[in-house]
Amino acid sequence: MIEIEHLSKYFGATCAVQDVSFTVKRGEVIGLLGPNGSGKTTIMRVLTGFFPPTAGRARVAGYDAAEQSLALRRRIGYLPENVVLYPDMRVRAFLEFCAAARRMGADRRRERIAAVIHDCGLSEVISRLIGTLSKGYRQRVGLAQALLHEPEVLILDEPTVGLDPRQIIEIRSLIRGLRGRTTVLLSTHILPEVSMTCERVVIIDRGRIVAEDTAEALTRRVEGENRTLVRVEGPLEDVRAVLSAVPGVERVEVADGVASGRTVECIAHSRSGEPVRKAIAAAVVGRGWGLIEVRPLALSLEDLFVRLVTEEEAAIDADHV
User: What is the pLDDT of residues 251-291, one digit of tens each?
Assistant: First the structure.
């Protein structure tokens, strides 16, 4: 449904996107994850026909974003990061205006406005001026206009930015409800966003794709550093010293301090998993301490992102040497 092939975009001498390629299948919800300034918004603006690519191609629903922009725009819904609304219009009047701009007939207009009011939870504010709405409700109005014409592809740029926690949960729920009905490409720099709403993630940094897969698969790919949680009944500094001396252990950190009494929790970092855990267990038992727990710790999404971006930066720096 979305095809991006060797896409690059320059603004003068500045490269915003460099040789990016990925696809999104029909009905998928995909997250484009990266820090601010990584090129996410530029990719979305190319996909929506706002910017022509400098090189490469972008297609949506089979239409070329540069050569068939008008036909493509009829098939997409777009929620930009800073959605443009008319503060002096009432919600229903604004949706009527958007439907008219898309040349909907009267019957279909009534049907679709009623549908997006229901789906986006706007019933309570439908007669209010947009300028009086909270940030969360304005975001819902923006999503409603993007869904009004039942687009084949929905493109959302930072859809939860500036919302409070409850509003974020509500918008995420709305997006998850679109799964299977509409193809969704969602950009964000907020890590929990992709794990809670997306089936697959494309991680981008400095205009280049760093990784692409499910969050779980990406975690498995970058688990070159293993973390082992060790809970031991013994003196903290002695336990720390013994764990640090285990072959394969690179460093040891105290988890959350002393849990209670003589019980301590440490995290051992190593390059191998099961062999090091066995050696840790043997070292602890050999000192006569009580071994309460030894288990691997999975990388968090934050760890995953930092590792992938750091590896990419190291590779880029090596290329320039």
Answer: 898 876 455 567 889 989 887 778 899 999 999 999 999 99
| Cα-based angle 9, 10, 11 (whole degrees, multiple of 5) | 130
181 Cβ contact list (under 8 Å, min separation 6):
27
Distance of alpha carbon 209 from alpha carbon 62, whole angstroms: 23
Residues in the chain, total: 321
**CA 140 – CA 159 distance, rounded (Å):** 9
SS (H, E, C) the chain: CEEEEEEEEEECCEEEEEEEEEEECCCCEEEEECCCCCCHHHHHHHHCCCCCCCEEEEEECCEECCCCHHHHHCCEEEECCCCCCCCCCEHHHHHHHHHHHCCCCHHHHHHHHHHHHHHCCCHHHCCCEHHHCCHHHHHHHHHHHHHCCCCCEEEEECCCCCCCHHHHHHHHHHHHCCCCCCEEEEEECCHHHHHHHCCEEEEEECCEEEEEECHHHHHHHCCCCEEEEEEEECCHHHHHHHHHHCCCEEEEEEEEEEEECCEEEEEEEECCCHHHHHHHHHHHHHCCCEEEEEEEECCCHHHHHHHHHHHHHHHHHHHCC
pTM score of the predicted model:
0.72
Burial class, 15, CB count within 10 angstroms (exposed 0-12 / middle 13-18 / buried 19+): middle
Q: Regarding beta strands 76-79 and 249-260, do their DSSP bridges make them parallel or antiparallel, or are they unpaired?
A: unpaired
Which residues on neighbouring strands pair with residue 20, listed in sequence order?
7
